[in-house]
Design brief:
Pfam families: Amidohydro_1 (PF01979). The chain is built from 19 helices and 16 strands. The strands form two sheets. Strands 1, 2, 3, 4, 5, 14, 15 and 16 form an eight-stranded mixed β-sheet that branches. α10 links the parallel β10 and β11.
């Protein structure tokens, strides 16, 4: 927990539109053009929610209805677009999302002043030029070879849908940009031997262009959908000591603080984690990460924080580093030594020890290459670390080159959202008690809000105001908050809960679990969407529409057929293996 152990009541259901996919045709993308092949999703209420009364509703009787028997049409707004053949009328393009360049994570290296200046660049300046859309093939126009000559790692061919999420190199999606996720129909995708995407486009064009190429593996995706690998922006996966008994206590009426005062909660986990060996911790971490992979996660943030003393925190970070080097899933490490105040110390004393002892040691071990830490985290909460102590720790970490990504405004309004905007944080997690002023500040600063639906669900808490954040233009990301108190590996379940309890649409939830989660981790330049030049992390689901990944509540081990990282299959379900 930190804040990482919380969970809550169900709010009203939120309905999300999706691309209406029909027929099987795809508009051809040639030369350097950037046409959408899958059309736009039906927006039934301006923000992706169903409105059976508004003027943009789907008219099932009138001339603008979806033609369920033939080609697919766009439902709502100003009529219908056909996806087969030529479109009857081209809609006005959606407004371009406001974005700014985001530097790759610097880990423990001090950031030069020029980099800091770039992060503080005013919003009024024009965004950097966008790279070509994902349908433009490297090496020139169709028919040329160029960089495409030679062997390749993976060909995924004839997919029913390829959900690229972004079409023009966006680093995040917010506001109106969330209304038009990029989806290709009848498409194929190529990953090179370096693990990066080399081409995406119509299946017939890819077949012709790569007809003489060799591939280490080819997968027929007929009738299936390809999506970006999911990104889990907030996890606590390194710990020892089961706490299943606490769930029974909660069901019997015990509160979180009741359990904490009885010796449970974080302190129970800290005690067992301190006693565990590195080998024991690595074995359990490996199993948990494998479960995440089977649910479609290809990039995860992993926190320390169940040690609190320097020795155990370093033990946890060494375990995370070993997993980063040995396992195929992508990992970003977060130092979370300020997860709780150790017994016998005040928050000020704990902050002093972290600043004067823990952080210098992290710098030393980072310079030697023993460990690599990407982010710094603090649990900013009443009775834990107050705003001043939180600011001191985060600022010290930032001066070492760590990215700020912390817990805040979970149980009480702490002005953590405002602090995150002030310090230039990549993200703030939880935010159930974020103020209107804090939400506005995060939107202006382009500080991500990592929302954790499992926490509110399992602890029966109020939901964070996701719709308010989305409407204000905050970059909303999602995380599982996996920890002993919120035992959920599955980002598809997280997306489902976000839609039902937080009233997010399905496109908003998918963006929050891919490109925006990658942005919250400083990795959206390489992860979070399927575009030429990005890492070949993706999933293949056995469904004709991508929305099944969110619509289906559980059982995703049957739905997800392949999980791919850097172009290599790292999970194949039993049904695929039998074929």
């Amino acid at each position: 927990m930190g804040g990482g152990e919380r969970i809550g009541g169900a709010g009203p259901s939120g309905w999300g539109g999706g691309e209406r996919i029909g027929g099987g045709g795809a508009e051809r993308i040639g030369g350097g053009g950037a046409e959408r092949m899958g059309g736009r999703r039906a927006d039934w209420r301006g923000r992706g929610r169903a409105d059976w009364r508004g003027r943009g509703r789907a008219d099932w009787r009138g001339r603008g209805r979806a033609d369920w028997g033939g080609g697919a049409e766009r439902i709502g707004g100003g009529g219908a677009e056909r996806m087969r053949g030529r479109r009857a009328r081209a809609p006005a393009p959606p407004p371009a999302p406001r974005c700014r360049p985001r530097l790759p994570p610097r880990g423990l290296r001090p950031a030069p002043s020029s980099a800091r200046a770039l992060r503080r660049r005013p919003q009024s300046r024009a965004p950097a030029p966008r790279p070509p859309p994902p349908s433009v093939l490297p090496g020139g126009l169709p028919g040329t070879r160029g960089a495409m000559a030679g062997g390749h790692r993976l060909l995924l061919e004839n997919a029913r849908q390829v959900v690229t999420v972004c079409a023009r190199g966006e680093r995040f999606l917010a506001g109106d940009a969330l209304h038009s996720l990029a989806v290709l129909e009848g498409a194929s995708l190529v990953v090179g031997t370096d693990g990066f995407i080399k081409a995406i486009g119509p299946a017939d064009a890819i077949q012709k262009l790569f007809s003489e190429e060799t591939f280490e593996e080819r997968i027929d995706c007929s009738g299936k959908c390809i999506l970006p690998g999911l990104v889990d922006a907030h996890t606590h996966p390194v710990w020892a000591g089961e706490r299943v008994h606490e769930f029974a206590m909660k069901l019997a009426g015990a509160t979180y603080m009741d359990i904490h005062q009885a010796g449970g909660g974080i302190n129970f986990t800290v005690e067992h984690t301190r006693q565990a060996s590195e080998e024991e911790l690595f074995g359990s971490l490996r199993g948990r990460l494998q479960s995440m992979v089977r649910a479609g996660t290809t990039l995860a943030e992993c926190k320390s924080g169940y040690g609190l003393d320097l020795q155990t925190e370093l033990k946890m970070l060494r375990v995370i580093e070993r997993a980063r080097r040995q396992l195929p899933i992508g990992i970003l490490a977060t130092y979370c030594g300020a997860h709780s105040v150790p017994k016998g110390k005040t928050a000020v004393e704990a902050a002093d020890e972290i600043i004067n002892s823990h952080l210098p040691k992290l710098m030393e071990l980072g310079a030697s290459g023993e460990i690599h830490v990407d982010n710094i985290d603090v649990f900013c909460e009443k009775g834990v670390f107050d705003l001043n102590s939180t600011r001191r720790i985060l600022q010290s970490g930032k001066e070492m080159g760590l990215q700020i990504n912390f817990h805040g405004d979970e149980l009480h309004p702490m002005k953590a959202a405002e602090l995150g905007a002030e310090l230039g944080a990549l993200a703030v997690s939880h935010l159930e008690e974020a103020s209107d002023e804090g939400i506005a500040a995060m939107a202006t600063a382009r500080c991500s809000a990592i929302l954790l639906p499992t926490t509110a669900y399992m602890l029966r808490l109020k939901q964070p105001r996701a719709r308010k954040m989305l409407d204000e233009g905050v970059i909303v990301a999602l995380g599982s908050d996996f920890n002993p108190n919120a035992y959920c590996f599955s980002m598809p379940v997280v997306m489902h809960l976000a839609c039902v309890n937080m009233r997010m649409s399905m496109p908003e939830a998918l963006a929050a679990a891919t490109i925006n989660a990658a942005y919250a981790l400083g990795k959206s330049h390489t992860h979070g969407s399927l575009e030429v030049g990005k890492q070949g992390d993706l999933i293949v689901i056995n469904a004709a529409r991508w929305e099944h990944l969110i619509y289906q509540f559980g059982g995703h081990h049957e739905l997800i057929e392949y999980v791919v990282a850097k172009g290599k299959v790292i999970y194949k379900n039993e049904r695929s293996e039998r074929k």
